[in-house]
């Protein structure tokens, strides 16, 4: 009799645990899952294995259509994830619109008139809400969209830890303070990245995301006309590249004209970005200083990645995982927003 009671209790406990792990995937496995020998901060690639196994397929199908319609969107979504993680950690705070309680990060200096891709995130969210209501967080959607955009542009794939939850707050001041500016010196860049627990290797590898996408004339105009406050161009700019840029980016006005960050293969995620830097054809000051700044490690890495694309891909994947693990909200912190633009 005693044995039967114990068996029944064990069965009840098992059923409860299955219910819990279905209701809250990751309740047992995954939280504290290991990746590359590190604790993955409570995130797990299997997080939606039971609650929304089709999550990544849904993300990819929306991305394929969006990128086919607008090639720039892949780079925009990659940048969105970056600009989210550097503020309060990867918590989708960048997606929140202004409201009575929220001052949106969308209006910060680094974001205003330049971050884009919000409609694509909305579309992914609405499809996921149809398939698995209130299950996949907006923060995880940003991480999945960044990886998907990389893959669809010909770049690497990686095993992505999931299980982030969404912030109920945004930080305009954090966005203004923590996102590295395009005219940053190498010392600035190292400091911005160190503040996030990212090192020089992460800095160079993640800068490689500039292999796709464009930049506004306003972000590199200083290099063409007044690099050191002496009304002279940046002497590190290769001459023909400099003249090409001048024709599309006038001294006054034209701030929103755009130029590819990697004009060699602007739609392909490859290592051409690093090859161009070696030839004096890096578009932004923050690209050029990886080579010309006085940090030996970043100089050497630019040369290595220019020579070896697979090495770049491998490190980019590891650095994206590391960045995606910045201060995530897990467990019962934050929420899973129904609409990525506002708190529940």
């Amino acid at each position: 009799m005693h044995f039967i009671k114990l068996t029944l209790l064990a069965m009840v406990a098992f059923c409860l645990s299955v219910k819990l792990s279905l209701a809250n995937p990751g309740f047992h496995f995954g939280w504290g899952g290991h990746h590359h020998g590190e604790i993955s901060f409570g995130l797990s690639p299997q997080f939606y294995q039971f609650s929304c196994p089709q999550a990544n397929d849904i993300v990819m199908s929306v991305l394929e259509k969006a990128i086919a319609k607008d090639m720039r969107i892949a780079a925009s979504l990659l940048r969105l994830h970056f600009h989210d993680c550097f503020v309060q950690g990867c918590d989708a705070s960048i997606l929140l619109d202004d409201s009575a309680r929220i001052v949106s990060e969308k209006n910060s200096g680094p974001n205003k008139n330049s971050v884009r891709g919000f409609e694509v995130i909305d579309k992914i969210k609405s499809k996921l809400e149809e398939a698995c209501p209130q299950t996949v967080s907006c923060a995880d959607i940003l991480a999945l969209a960044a990886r998907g955009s990389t893959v669809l542009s010909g770049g690497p794939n990686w095993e992505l830890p999931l299980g982030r939850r969404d912030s109920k707050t945004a930080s305009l001041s954090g966005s203004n303070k923590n996102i590295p500016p395009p005219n940053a010196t190498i010392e600035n860049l190292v400091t911005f990245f160190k503040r996030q627990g990212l090192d020089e290797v992460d800095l160079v590898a993640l800068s490689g995301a500039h292999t796709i996408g464009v930049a506004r004339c306003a972000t590199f105009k200083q290099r063409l006309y007044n690099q050191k406050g002496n009304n002279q161009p940046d002497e590190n700019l290769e001459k023909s590249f400099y003249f090409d840029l001048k024709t599309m980016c006038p001294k006054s006005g034209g701030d929103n004209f755009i130029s590819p960050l990697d004009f060699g293969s602007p739609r392909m995620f490859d290592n051409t970005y690093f090859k161009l830097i070696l030839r004096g054809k890096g578009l932004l000051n923050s690209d050029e200083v990886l080579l010309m700044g006085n940090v030996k490690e970043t100089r050497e890495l630019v040369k290595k990645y220019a020579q070896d694309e697979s090495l770049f891909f491998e490190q980019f994947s590891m650095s994206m995982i590391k960045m995606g693990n910045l201060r995530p909200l897990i467990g019962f912190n934050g929420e899973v927003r129904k609409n990525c633009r506002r708190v529940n």
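Residues 2-23 form the longest helix (22 residues). The CA atoms of residues 305 and 311 lie 6 Å apart.
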